[in-house]
Amino acid sequence: MLKSMTGFGRGEGDTGLGRVTAEVRSVNHRYCDISLKLPRRMAPFEIRIKEMVRSGVSRGRVDVSLRLETQGEGKVQLNADLHLAEQYYHALQALKEKLALKDEITLGLLAGAKDLITGREEFEDVEPYWPQIELILRQSFKAMDEMKRSEGESILKDIQERLKRIRQEITTIKSCFPRCLETHRERLLERLRSLLNGLNVDPLRFQQEVAFLAERVDITEEMVRAESHLDQFSALLEKDESVGRKMDFLIQEIHREVNTASSKANEAEISQRVVDIKSELEKVREQVQNIE
To answer: What is the span of the domain harbouring residue 107?
Structure first.
């Protein structure tokens, strides 16, 4: 089953820390690129969350956001920088003596000094709450995966229709090639007669030239390889794994084979059908860009 790289999922629930809401978004990206937005208290879980993402996502940009509605605030620990306070005091004392000021240097004056007293919020150990948070995260990942699979089904149907049209065009090219070869044969005969100015054409020599021409313009190998690549592509559509990069490679190969066939055949009808095939291939490529 194909999966799109585009998806969204949400999960929420109550934990011992408070109510946690998890949101995860995925968009197109060549590789697996993960971005996390977590409360400071959940920073210890960063590595584990990234491992969870990588276990279920092979490529795409994934943004994970966790919000915490806490039931209680962390404790604030105040610290006084005594060394800095002493420097402030000596500086103020020197200023007082220099300017002959009578005001006293009080605690209130020092308390207003920048960075003299700092607060640091202390949190309890969050490790015991990981199983609860992990469950909420898995809810959001599951919802995102379901959305990616749903979009993947739509992509699959579109690609299958386009592959069907490509196969039809290749079948038509194969069927019209003998007629194309006969046209080349007639052109060659007409050219020889013109060059010989009415003289008879040596039948043996003419057949040799026709054989050389047939070898130069023969597109059988290209068509066989193109059909083989289409078969491989169709097989990938049934796999429940990451197939986007393999599909992109096969599209390039099919494009190359039909291009070569068009150049070798050098016939208007075949060239036009190759243009139609390339148009369909480009639309398939656009869809593949969104396949994980």
So the answer is: 75-122
